[in-house]
Specification:
Blueprint (H helix, E strand, L loop, with lengths): L1 H17 L4 H12 L4 H26 L4 H21 L5 H47 L1
Helix pairs in contact: 1-2, 2-3
Length: about 140
Amino acid sequence: MTYLFGFLAALAVGILAGMGVGSGGVFLLYLTLIADMEHKMAQGVNLLFFVFALSAAVPVHLTKYRVPVRILGIVLLLGIPGALIGSMLVPHLPVSFLRKAFGALLVFSGVITLVRREAKNSRKSEKKEAECLTNAKETDIM
């Protein structure tokens, strides 16, 4: 039964990841709170899951969306060494620090997401207003 719940949790996280939801935090919460896994082990499993999910998602994003090569290069150049260094540091760090750092990362990424979404919505509103003004001027002329 435990394997079934684990499989269903991984499936749900995979679906959320495919929809663009930051599912790593959700999976980590499942592993630590429901599966009662030690936090360091849960982070390792979460990273391993992410590697497989990422390897499936990258080809889709590269073919479906325009991914700027410069940004991809920066992410790869910084991300791979960062992941390696992080995986070597984690065993030597206290769990309380890791939990706080992970919580801070979730809050930071949530704030960034909200700010970007608000800026995007603001630009859309301004564009619609400009279109309405343009359309109004065109109909007034005719």
